[in-house]
Amino acid sequence: GNSVTQMEGPVTLSEEAFLTINCTYTATGYPSLFWYVQYPGEGLQLLLKATKADDKGSNKGFEATYRKETTSFHLEKGSVQVSDSAVYFCAQWGGGGADGLTFGKGTHLIIQP
Amino acid sequence: GAGVSQSPRYKVAKRGQDVALRCDPISGHVSLFWYQQALGQGPEFLTYFQNEAQLDKSGLPSDRFFAERPEGSVSTLKIQRTQQEDSAVYLCASSLATSGSTDTQYFGPGTRLTVL
Question: Which three-class secondary structure state does DSSP give residue A75?
Answer without folding.
Answer: strand
